[in-house]
Write a structure and sequence with these properties.
- 2 copies of one chain form a homodimer.
- With 238 residues, chain A is an alpha+beta fold.
- Chain A folds into 2 domains: 135 residues, Jelly Rolls (Sandwich); 88 residues, Orthogonal Bundle (Arc Repressor Mutant, subunit A).
- Helices cover 37% and strands 21% of the residues of chain A.
- Chain A contains 7 helices and 12 strands.
- In chain A, the strands form 3 sheets. Chain A has a 4-stranded antiparallel β-sheet with strand order 1-8-3-6. In chain A, strands 2-7-4-5 form a 4-stranded antiparallel β-sheet. A 4-stranded antiparallel β-sheet of chain A has the order 9-10-12-11.
- In chain A, a hairpin with a 2-residue loop joins strand 11 and strand 12.
- In chain A, helix 2 packs across helix 3, helix 4 packs across helix 6 and helix 5 crosses helix 6.
- Chain A is globular.
- At the A-B interface, strand 5, helix 2 and helix 3 of A face strand 5, helix 2 and helix 3 of B.
- Chain A binds a DNA duplex (30 and 30 nucleotides) through helix 6.
- Chains A, B: InterPro entries: cNMP-bd_dom, cNMP-bd_dom_sf, HTH_CRP, RmlC-like_jellyroll, WH-like_DNA-bd_sf, WH_DNA-bd_sf.
- Chains A, B: It holds the Pfam family HTH_Crp_2.
Chain lengths: 238, 238
DNA sequence: ACTTTTCGTTAACATAGGTTAACTTACCAA
DNA sequence: TTGGTAAGTTAACCTATGTTAACGAAAAGT
C-alpha cells in the first residue's frame, strides 16, 4: 500500500470514486507517492510559508495553533483521506502540522492542484467537497468548545473519530486505535489533561466508552449518542 | 446601491477585483439583484434542505446552530462580502441563517455557481479564496472558545469585527456600528449574557474598548491587541 | 402616550473545570 | 535488565464563569 500513487488512492476515496476515467492521467502530481513522517515529527510550522497541500494516506496528523502564552489548541486531527492546508492565500501558515502517529502524506504543490482543478471537473469537485466537509467538522468542533460540557464534549469527539475512521474501515464493532495522549485530547477539547482524565474515568464508570492503552471502545452507543447529542449528518461525504 | 447587480458587487469586492473582463457576462445569475430581509427574520433553517449560496451585500447576518438542550452557538456573523452556505453536499443544512440587522443578500443556486466556477477561472478562484478565508475565521473562533478567557476572547472578537468591516470602509477611527445584543455576543463567545456584561464593563473600565448603544469604539488599540493576542494575518484577503 | 417586551446591569451565590502536586504505571533507550 | 522520561491517576484546593433573580432603561407595538 505504501507505494500506491495519489491517483490510485483517490480512486479508492469515498468522495473521489468518480475519478476513474483516464482523463485524470495528465497531471503529473497524480503519480506522486506518499511521503513518510515519523510519529511526533513536524511537517509544517505555523508562521512559515508553505505552499503544499497534503492528503493523508495513513496515520493520525495534528493541526494545531499556538497562542502567545504557550497554550495551544488542536484544530483537527486529520485522518486517512482528509485534505489539509487549503489556504489559497500566499502567506505564513496559520497552524502547525505534525504527526501524532507515524504518518504518510501525499504532498501537492498548491499551484499545480489549483490549475488542475480548473481544468478537471471531478477533481475540482472533490476538492470543494473536501473543504466543505472540513468546514462542517470545524463547526462541530466549535459547538463542542463553545456550548457542550466536558462530558458530552469528550463523548462527541470520540464518536466523531469513530465515524470518520469507519469510512475507511479503520473502526469496527465500536473499537478503534487512537494514539492520542490525554494532553493532546485536552488541547483538542479545550480542557486540561487532569480534567480529561476525570471525564474519561467518569465515562468509563457509566459504561459508555473506554479509552485505554491506545484503544477506544464504545460500550453503549445509545447512552453515548444521547449524552453527546451526536448526529453524524455533518460528516456525510456525498 | 440596492439595485446593484451581483456582477457589479463582485467587481467591487476586494477578492473579486480581477473579475472585470466581460467573459464574466454569460452567467445569468450575475445579473441578480440582492434580496432584502428584515432584521430578525430567518433566511434558512437548520435541518431543512436549501440549495442556495448567499453573498452578503449589506447588514449583519447570523449563522447559528442549535443544540438539543436549547443552547445555541453562533458560528459566524457574516458581513458585507462574505459568502455563506457552501456545503457542497445535498442534505439538510447544518445551521440556521438569519438576519441580525436589516440584511440584503445575493442568492445563487448552488448548481449554477458550481458549474460556472468550473468554466470561469477568476470566479472559481474567488470562491475558493472565500471558503478558505471562512475557514481561517472559524479556526480563530475555535481558538477563542477553546483557549482564551472571557476578556481576551471578547477583545479578540471585537477586533476581528473591526478588521472585517474596515475592508469595506464600514469602520473608521476604531469606531463601528454593531447591532449585536449581549445575548448574541454570548452565543458567539460561548459565554453567558451576564458574564459578557461583566466583561464588557471591565474592558470599558480598563479603557480598552467600549460598546454602548449599538456602537463599538476602540479606546486603546495597543492594550487591546496585547490582551487579545490579535494578529490580523488570518483575515488577509489576497 | 402608554404599555409591553426586550435589553442591560448588578449582586449573591453555586459549580464546573483549573491548578498543583504527589504517586503510579507504561514506555523507551542504552 | 534497568534507569529515565513521559503518560495516566488521584486528591485537595482554587477561581473563572454560570445561575438566579431583581430592577431600571431602552425599544417596540398599539
Amino acid at each position: 500500500m505504501h507505494n500506491q500513487t495519489l491517483l490510485q488512492f483517490i480512486k479508492s476515496h469515498p468522495i473521489g470514486a468518480s475519478l476513474t476515467r483516464d482523463e485524470s492521467e495528465p497531471y503529473s502530481f497524480l503519480k506522486l507517492v506518499a511521503k513518510e513522517y515519523k510519529a511526533h515529527s513536524i511537517v509544517s510550522r505555523q508562521g512559515e510559508v508553505d505552499t503544499r497541500i497534503f492528503i493523508v494516506q495513513s496515520g493520525w496528523a495534528c493541526l494545531q495553533r499556538g497562542l502567545q502564552n504557550g497554550d495551544r489548541q488542536i484544530i483537527d486531527t486529520p485522518l486517512r483521506g482528509d485534505i489539509i492546508g487549503v489556504r489559497a492565500v500566499d502567506g505564513p501558515s496559520i497552524a502547525t502540522l505534525s504527526a501524532i502517529s507515524d504518518l504518510s502524506l501525499f504532498e501537492i504543490p498548491r499551484r499545480a492542484l489549483a490549475s488542475a482543478t480548473l481544468l478537471h471537473r471531478p477533481l475540482g469537485n472533490m476538492l470543494t467537497r473536501a473543504i466543505a466537509r472540513q468546514n462542517s467538522i470545524l463547526t462541530e468542533h466549535l459547538m463542542n468548545t463553545g456550548r457542550r460540557n466536558a462530558m458530552s464534549r469528550t463523548a462527541h469527539f470520540l464518536l466523531e473519530m469513530e465515524e470518520r475512521l469507519s469510512a475507511y474501515g479503520l473502526a469496527s464493532g465500536g473499537r478503534y486505535e487512537c494514539p492520542l495522549t490525554q494532553q493532546e485530547l485536552a488541547d483538542i477539547l479545550g480542557l486540561t489533561p487532569v480534567h480529561v482524565n476525570r471525564t474519561l474515568g467518569e465515562l468509563r464508570k457509566l459504561e459508555m466508552i473506554s479509552f485505554k492503552a491506545g484503544w477506544v471502545e464504545v460500550l453503549s452507543r445509545k447512552k453515548l449518542v444521547a449524552l453527546a447529542g451526536f448526529d453524524k449528518e455533518y460528516l456525510r461525504l456525498m
